[in-house]
Amino acid sequence: MRIVSLVPSATEMLFALGLDDQIIAVTHECDYPPQARELPVVTHDVIPSGLQSAEIDAAVRALTDAGEAIYKLDEEELIDLEPDLIVTQALCSVCAVSYDDVVAIAGRIPSAPEVISLDPHTLGEMLGDVRTLAQATNRKDAGVDLIADAANRIDRVRLAVREAPRPVVAALEWLDPVFVAGHWTPQMIDYAGGTDLLGLPGEHSQTHSWEEIASVRPEVVVVMPCGYDAGRSLQEAQNHRDQLTSLDANRIVAVDAAAYFSRPGPRLVDGLELLAHTLHPQLVPEPQGVERALDF
Q1: How is the chain split into domains, by residue range?
Q2: 41 near 66, Cβ under 8 Å?
Q3: SS3 230
Q4: CATH architecture under which domain 166-295 falls
Q5: Eight-class DSSP state of 34
Q6: β-sheet bridge partners, residue 45
Q7: pLDDT tens-digit readout, 108-166
Q8: CA distance linking residue 9 with residue 271, whole number of Å
């Protein structure tokens, strides 16, 4: 089978299912596992690099309001590759190429590829997507093993923190304007032994004012700008020092959002373990091989 992945999280799933030799192309943002960086790339950014947070937000809004995608797909390259399967998503126009564009192009490819859209809103739906890909690629046993391992790790975290005090947590997915993380993140906070009074499980991330965030009196603030690693997240936090310190939280940390929180793939479980250790270090050991949260 010849597979093209147009979503970084899907690329991670495909590799985790042992399909390394069947993936023939990925996006410019597919950087995990490291082998993904060696594959042909069929997308590129429309928004220029080097912009500040507010400028990125404005550029994204302008493109989406105009009905345009922020990523461009190399249509000719995709057609020439003649894939059997294209994996994409329709959940977030900021995260990948337009789903409608992918379907339209797939209809013009001689190999008539199947198009699978992965659109999870929760941890459970992410694991369901693993099952979907495993069935589509004849990797059912690998899918069962991957899901079972993830479920066991999730259960261990929940069991470890079930009797612990639950600090109020604010998870900030962007800082200018400030977005509170939605989708699977509130669920992760709950499983990790925290309380999220702002994010809505399974719902889109939402903008809030700094005053609204301060009103819930967060004890822990997790800075997780979408798509940024821990170092860049910490830099963003430092750029918004006054707003963050005004929240009067006991602890502010920056995390590798791209690896463990933004992408709905297998490493969300790493993110859960990291979050649980951050909230309850005496109960949950620091996960191995995971970049730690950086204190602000």
Answers
A1: 3-144, 166-295
A2: no
A3: helix
A4: 3-Layer(aba) Sandwich (3.40)
A5: G
A6: 71
A7: 999 999 999 998 999 999 999 999 999 999 999 999 999 999 999 999 999 999 999 99
A8: 14
Rounded to whole angstroms, how far apart are CA atoms 166 and 249? 14
User: How much is the pTM?
Assistant: 0.91
Same CATH fold assignment for domains 3-144 and 166-295 = yes
Place of tokens 């969300």: 268
The CB-side HSE value for 158 (13 A sphere, CA atoms) comes to 11
d(CA 165, CA 170): 16
Mean model confidence pLDDT for the chain: 92
Q: Which helix (H) or strand (E) holds 62?
A: helix 53-65
Instruction: Give percent above pLDDT 70 in the chain.
Output: 93
CATH number of this structure's domain 3-144: 3.40.50.1980
Query: How is 140-209 classified by DSSP, letter by letter?
Result: HHHHHHHHHHHHHHHHHHHHHHTTS---BEEEEEEETTEEE--TTHHHHHHHTT-B-SS--TTS--EE--
